[in-house]
Amino acid sequence: MTTVNLGPPTVRFARRSTRGFLLGFSALRCGVILIAALTLLTGLLTGGGVGLIVTAPLWAGLLATAFVPVRGRVVVEWLPTVMQWQLRRVTRQTTYRVRVSPPRPVGTMALPGDAASLRFYNDPTTGACFIHDPHRQTLSAVLGVSHPAYVLLAPASQRDRVSMWGRVLASLAQTGTCALIQVLESTVPDPGTQFAHWYEEHATHAEDWANVEYQRLLTQSSFGSSTHRTTITLSLDLKKAAGAIRSAGRGLRGAAKVLRIDMSVLEQGLRDADLRVGEWLDEALLATLLRQAYDPNAPLGAQVTASDGSEQAPATLATSGPVALSEHWSYLRHDSGYSTVLWISEWPRVEVAPHFLHALIFAADIRKSLSLLARPLATGDALKSLRKEKTEAVTNAHHKAKVGQVQELSDVQEFNDLLKREQALINGHADVEFSGFITVTASSEEGLTAAVALIERSAGQSGCETRVLYGRQSQGFVVAALPLGRSVF
After folding, report:
1. Separation CA 361–CA 359 (nearest Å)
2. Residue 423: exposed, middle, or buried by beta-carbon count in 10 A (0-12, 13-18, 19+)?
3. CA distance 199 to 178
4. What is the tens place of the pLDDT at every residue in 436-463?
5. How many C-beta atoms lie closer than 10 Å to residue 272's C-beta?
6. pLDDT tens sequence across 81-117
7. pTM score of the predicted model
8. At 212, is the secondary structure helix, strand, or coil?
9. Contact 432, 318 (CB under 8 A)
10. For the stretch 199-229, what's the b/e string if a residue is b when 16 or more beta carbons lie within 10 angstroms of its beta carbon?
């Protein structure tokens, strides 16, 4: 007799790899330890005990940088980030100001930093606006979606929805041309004025029990209520799809034709997963999302309303970027807001329900964006990567045993996770690399500090560990707050 598990689904994330160049140490850390050892040996051979004491500040300082942790990383591993940050400050790449200049070239976007190279293409067939990244060779489209409350579904419905979403990722991975899937969940605190206005216009305002209770409900719902907006960005790898693009007519038109095939596959998969598929965003809608990300006080519609009540022209990507931007070590100041980008460095290490991010997404009275990046891997590439990781794991275990270092349980768990991933690939499943980022936005620096502390606490309740992207806030903001299909892979 077969027993069917009808309980709620659970999932456990594989541990993030901690293997380094040697014995778990990175190449930079090993180099510093080697220099410290050579300095100590040189002082000892040339001056004996006196030479050892004289060179002590140097080799001791080097060893301290290799072993003393600062915010989850040893000091020496901060060196590349600090050097890059200082170089960008010297070259004045941490500030951006809009300049009054002639009209921008057609198809260019007004974004700062390395996002300035992005281009857009309005597809005449679907009416959608495609984002072209000429450096990373990708073409992306953004889809608006909505969904009912997952936690209110029956366990069987939850299992079906999780299974169908896995099939969506697997179908895109099998094409071999999908570069990235970005799920962006944006949350904006909302006092609930729209519901109150609708009630004022349509209610009977009678002093009966129903109206009294409904008014009380509206008053209670105005505290902690938020507006949620979800988009899914689909990116096509132009290099891997080069053959199909040539057959479709070459150039952006040929790439758009190939991307439309993946768009239809994604739409069908989302409908099978019982998600409400919206429209592929055109230039006006996409420009509005970008403008609202940089300017929290911007209007929520796709059309700008003048002070006299008349509607002006729809938003355009040529003017949707920030007016002014200043990047700091741990936060970003842009137009009317302050933002900090956090990286989800560790996912839950125990079995959790698929809605484990509920506490993070529904943190009250905080403007934030959660960006989940999924890069589907072709079966061949995934097996090749797993073989490499298995070889590194075995070699690392051999080196530790050779020097007498005890093998840790975390190493055993990582190796078991590799075996499970390999077994899943052999059984026909797809392998996906995940990465998560959180953007917290506030109207003041003090408010931002308090909001980041609350988000870090909510992430801990969800079983996640977060780290601030020090020195890379501008790049992180484009990845974490904008639906442009940018990645850090």
Report:
1. 6
2. exposed
3. 46
4. 999 999 999 999 999 999 999 999 898 8
5. 15
6. 889 899 988 888 888 888 766 666 777 888 888 888 8
7. 0.84
8. helix
9. no
10. eeeeeeeeeeeeeeeeeeeeeeeeeeebeeb
Q: How many Å from the N-terminal Cα to the C-terminal Cα in the chain?
A: 46
The structure tokens 């002006």 sit at 312
Q: Which two tokens stand for residue 431?
A: 């392998």
DSSP state of 11: B
Measure CA 307 to chain center. 37
* pLDDT confidence tier of residue 25, bands split at 50, 70 and 90: confident
Count of C-beta atoms within a 10 Å radius of residue 327: 25
Q: Give strand pairing partners of 95.
A: 326
Burial level of 106, CB count in 10 A (0-12/13-18/19+)?
A: exposed
Give the DSSP H/E element, type plus range, for residue 109: none
Token look-up 């911007």 returns 298
Phi then psi for residue 377, to 5 deg, are: -110, 135
Measured over the CA atoms of residue 79, residue 84, residue 90 and residue 93, the dihedral's sign is negative
User: Can you tell me the distance from the alpha carbon of 381 to that of 385, in angstroms, rounded to the nearest whole number?
Assistant: 6
Whole-number Cα distances in Å, 135 to 85, 130, 132, 208, 486? 22, 15, 9, 65, 11
Inter-residue contact 248 to 151 (CB < 8 Å) = no
